[in-house]
Write a structure and sequence with these properties.
Elements (H helix, E strand, L loop, with lengths): L3 E4 L2 E2 L5 H13 L3 E9 L4 E8 L1 H18 L15 E10 L3 H19 L3 E5 L10 H4 L7 H5 L15 H6 L2 E5 L4 E7 L4 H11 L4 E2 L20 E2 L6 E8 L4 E8 L7 H14 L4 E7 L4 H15 L7 H12 L9 H4 L1 H6 L12 H8 L8 H24 L8 H36 L6 H42 L5 H26 L5 H33 L1
Parallel strand pairs: 5-7, 6-7
Antiparallel strand pairs: 1-4, 1-5, 2-4, 2-5, 3-4, 8-12, 8-13, 9-10, 11-12
Length: 565
């Protein structure tokens, strides 16, 4: 899975569009990131910027943006309604795909250290990057705002985690910055079959984490209950990590529950939908659909599709596009207007900018024609990976057919687990279809390097060896993943829908051919390596996988033939 993180810096300038553009131009000019949104606010005098990319690229773009903001924004003259204590007030990193929260927190710490060391900005690490519990809360870190920063810097309890601790001229101008790692925040609106804002608010108060004020007697007009400190007592809502309110949307002529989900780990999208639907129904209302504002991570939609399929007792080991379709229909994402995954899912928006030609995105005829052309790639390595993917696909198909076979309803989860495994193997092998060709191209690029001076010759030789080693490792991965497919194929031949046993047999033939074909590439590429220990080892391991694959294919075909007579 491609590693992606989002960065949402908030800059203390929302009125001078020229300054904002200079900052966002810096971000847009950085390689490997995509600027998704720029949201300036005049009253708050603050601009929220959103961009996304691979971690190292995002960290670099964030650093450059903070440096430009430090150059352009003078906090000594800043006024606005929103709490703030720096030119770049906050800079959170958000894991999108392929990155854990702890990894994201470490990237935040690296960014914070660089900002403190190179730009001499006081840095407070917050949320999941915090150095102590009390600093997790941004409001605690920013208490007193810019005007109280001088005293906070010299405080033992609240001195910055990184960067200077004295209020010098540079700090007086730039202020401080909070750098952290947090969960993805998504804004969603639940469509109700009512025009009543009051009723929408009632549902919002039922579910939002803050809940509603506890009152004596009448829950609406009664006197608020106070605790021993004189503070209002709250009745908590049912959804952690959420904020919500009801409102009326004239454009649609309906009321909505408008919600921010600030922690998708605590409250996944589908759980929020079910809970709001339940609370609405208890008040005589119905949720007719869900509107997502802005972009959403693919995982949130995929998880929803799996959740609703599991509730139906259906296999979740289906394709990504099918899971998304189930999620759209289950939550009514197309209630008010079409939900277009390519426009609403972050990973798909980014993929639309990738202009590279992908073999797996070709038609079957196009892939065959490309293979049959005069070009040496794609070749046997890519074809082997595709054969393996087809074998895993057939195994997943038999698992899915078995999961909803009449009379086997109590076994759906067993077959669903096998289908999920088959889909995962298929997806990695499809990745290896293109990666095998990419590895070949890397070897060709290395051979094209200059070889005039001794230094150039040495660099060229090193590059050729590194590329050849990688070109050996890729087909070996194809061997490993194709061999993994035998587990699913065997289970389906033995226990799957008997009407599809021949499909399992063809899957076994594909997996064996994939292993043997990929091994040919391993051997020919390893022959060109100077590191003979590595070469001999990978060939020996490959020979063992080939032998076991031939045996596995023979065993499975015996099972298949015994069942078809």
């Amino acid at each position: 899975m491609k590693k992606l993180i989002e960065c949402v810096p908030n800059f203390s300038e929302g009125r001078d569009l020229g300054v904002i553009k200079q900052i966002t131009d810096v971000i847009a000019s950085c390689d490997g990131v995509k600027l998704l949104d720029v949201d300036p606010g005049f009253t708050t005098n603050r601009t929220v910027v959103t961009f996304v990319g691979e971690p190292d690229d995002v960290v670099e773009a964030a650093f450059q943006a903070v440096r430009k903001a430090q150059e352009l924004i003078d906090m000594r003259r800043h006024k606005g309604d929103h709490p703030r204590f720096g030119a770049t007030d906050v800079c959170p990193l958000v894991p999108i795909s392929g990155v854990t929260m702890e990894e994201c927190a470490e990237y935040a710490r690296q960014l914070g250290k660089r900002l403190g060391d190179e730009l001499s900005i006081p840095i407070c690490l917050y949320e999941n990057a915090a150095t102590e519990e009390k600093r997790r809360n941004l409001a605690n870190c920013r208490e007193g705002e810019y005007e109280g920063l001088k005293d906070r810097l010299s405080s033992e309890d609240w001195k910055p985690d990184l960067g200077p601790t004295d209020f010098n001229d540079s700090v007086a101008r730039s202020g401080a910055t909070a750098v952290g790692a947090r969960d993805f925040l998504i804004a969603v609106n639940f469509n109700l079959n009512t025009t009543s804002t009051r009723r929408a608010n009632a549902v919002a108060f039922d579910v939002r984490e803050k809940g509603r004020i506890k009152r004596d007697g009448n829950p609406i007009t009664g006197k608020p209950v106070l605790d021993e400190n004189g503070d209002q007592v709250m009745i908590p809502g049912t959804l952690k990590g959420t904020k919500a309110i009801g409102w009326f949307i004239g454009e649609y002529g309906i009321a909505q529950v408008s919600m921010n989900i600030t922690n998708l780990s605590e409250t996944p999208l589908h759980i929020a939908f079910d809970e709001v639907s339940d609370k609405a129904q208890k008040r005589g209302l119905r949720v007719t659909g869900l509107e997502i504002v802005g972009l959403v991570p693919k995982k949130a939609i995929i998880d929803a599709g799996k959740y609703y399929l599991a509730k139906q007792g259906r296999s979740i080991g289906i394709t990504e596009s099918e899971l998304i379709k189930i999620a759209i229909k289950s939550m009514g994402l197309d209630d008010l207007k079409p939900f277009v995954p390519e426009e609403k899912i972050i990973e798909y928006v980014l993929a639309a900018d990738d202009k590279s030609d992908s073999l797996v995105d070709m038609t079957c005829r196009g892939f065959a024609d490309e293979t049959a052309s005069e070009s040496p790639a794609p070749g046997g390595g890519s074809i082997s990976a595709y054969l393996g993917a087809l074998g895993a696909s057939l195994a997943a198909m038999v698992a899915n057919l078995s999961s909803h076979k009449a009379g086997w309803d109590d076994r759906w989860e067993e077959f669903s687990d096998w289908a999920v495994k088959g889909q995962a193997i298929k997806d990695e092998l499809l990745y290896l279809v293109d990666e095998d060709t990419n590895s070949f191209n890397k070897v060709m690029d290395a051979f094209g390097l200059p070889k005039g001076t001794d230094e150039e010759k040495a660099a060229r030789t090193a590059a050729i060896q590194a590329a050849t080693k990688y070109a050996t490792e890729v087909p070996f991965r194809t061997m490993e993943r194709s061999f993994d497919a035998f587990d699913v194929v065997r289970a389906m031949a033995e226990h799957g829908n008997p009407n599809s046993v021949t499909d399992a047999g063809v899957g076994a033939l594909c997996a064996r051919s994939a292993v043997m074909g990929a091994f040919l590439n391993v051997k020919i590429n390893a022959a060109g390596l100077k590191d003979r220990e590595f070469a001999d080892n990978i060939i020996a391991r490959g020979a063992e996988i080939e032998t076991r694959s031939i045996a596995a294919e023979s065993e499975i075909m015996a099972i298949v033939n015994s069942k078809i007579g």
